[in-house]
Structure formats: structure tokens, C-alpha cells
Amino acid sequence: MMPARSTTPVFDVVGDARRAFDVLAAGGIAVVPNDIGYSALGGSPEALELIFRTKGRAPQKLNAMVADLETHRDLHECSERGRRIVETIVLDYGLPLGCIAPFRTDHPLMTSLPAEVVAASTRENTLVMLLNAGRFHAELTRLARENDVALFGSSANLTLGGTKFRVEDIEREIIDVADIVVDHGLQKYHPYGSSSTLLNVETLEVVRRGSCFPDIAYILERHFGEDIGR
Questions:
Q1: Most buried of 10, 19, 32, 93, CB within 10 angstroms?
Q2: Which residues pair with 181 in a beta bridge?
Q3: Which of 144, 121, 133 is nearest to 95 (CA)?
């Protein structure tokens, strides 16, 4: 058990997550920290479109939903094996994962979204969820789940600009469109220089080799007998 703190924390995770969530719930844009780099999230179709235009992002690129395991279990339609893969990576090894899987199109969280948001965030009936990306991510996703708000976004950088692990490295164009910027310093997986690994947990297609990919590949080989490369 970790000892109790004797000093005030450097970062107000709970308070900052609440402030970011309030901006997003009102339809704004928030730049927020995750272990796998800073993200730009939008709370409305207009906000997501502005993020896309500002980033110069290709139309075929998808938004990711910021989510926790409860949302994943409720919304993703996974086989028993797929769920075991997710939980082994996220719970047993404590790693972040861009989890791709089929989803429930009739789920209230999805049916309440504008059609353009669904179209920009799904492909062939699959949805990407960012799971287990740090303390701030956990608090923000808890607020989103408890308030039935779906939050989407992508990395806070211009296209081809590389994932940003410090606010001071984020391009001015991104900062200027944000209604709130939460600066929690250098993020955990900066040595990888990449955002989350994107893995379809049903087909085991690797869409992106990102942070912790060698660890994820090891997990799949050791525990599931699957070779997805190193």
C-alpha cells in the first residue's frame, strides 16, 4: 500500500478533469493529458470538425472515444477471447490500449449522437476506444460515463507533427482553438514518441504500432499464442 501524502499534489486531477468535462459537455474543445500524449477532445460535431480542420487531418482518419472498461464492456461487442485480451493488457499488465472492436449500434450512447459524429468515429461497425491512459483519463472517463456523455477526439498535434507529450510542444494552431488546456507536464510514455497502440481485439489486426507495442505483442504471444510481430 502506498503511504498517504504529506504535501499537496502538484496536479489537481479531479478538479481539472471536472473543469475539462464541463467545457466538453457544453460543446467546447479541451486539450487534455493522457499517458500516451496530449489529446484534443470535442464535445460537439462543430468542435470535432474544427479540430479536424485545424489538424489538417485526412477524412479517413477516425476519432477515438475516451472510455473506461465499464463503457467498453457495455458498448463493445466482444467475444470472450476478445474481452480476455483487453483485460489482460489493461488490468493484468496495466497498459494503455487503443481498443478496436464491433460495437452496439443500438446503444443509447451511440443513438443519441449526431450521424456525422458516428460516421467520423466508426468504420465497418467498429469503434476505437482509448482505455487505461492514466489518472486524468480515468477521472474524465468516469465523468463521461456517469453523465452519459460520449467524448471523442484525437492527438493534440497537426497532421504529421508527431504526438506531443508536453503542452509547450503542441502547435499554436491547436492551442488557439481549445477552450481549455490542462497542462500536467511530461506524460508517462514519452520515450515511445507515439500515441496508443491500436489493436482490433477480435481480428488482431494492428492498425498502429504505438506506445507499449512490444509489451502488447509479448502479452499476446505468451498468453494467447498469437504472433503480431515485435
A1: 32
A2: 31
A3: 133
- CA gap 129, 210 in Å, rounded: 14
Q: What angle do CA 190, 196, 72 make, to 5 degrees?
A: 135
What the block records as the C-alpha cell of 65 is: 472515444
Question: How far apart are alpha carbons 217 and 122 in whole angstroms?
Answer: 25
Q: Which residue pairs, CB below 8 angstroms and at least 24 apart, start in 56-59?
A: 56/158, 56/159, 57/154, 57/159, 58/159
- Grid cell in block for residue 198: 491500436
The β-bridge relationship of strands 206-208 and 198-200 is antiparallel
- Model pLDDT, residue 130: 97
Residue 202, all three cell numbers: 477480435
Give pLDDT, residue 63: 86
The partner residues of 30 in beta bridges, in order of sequence, read: 41, 180
Domains in the chain: ranges and CATH: 13-224 (3.90.870.10)
Assign 72 to helix, strand or coil. helix
Q: What is the pLDDT of residue 3?
A: 77
Q: What is the mean pLDDT of each run of 10 residues along the chain (230 residues)?
A: 83 98 97 98 91 81 90 97 98 98 92 85 92 98 94 92 97 98 98 96 97 98 94
**Where does residue 88 fall: left (phi above 0), alpha (psi -120 to 50 degrees), or beta otherwise?**
alpha
Q: Give the helix ranges, DSSP H, for 76-195.
A: 80-87, 108-111, 115-121, 135-146, 172-177
Grid cell, residue 137, equals: 483519463
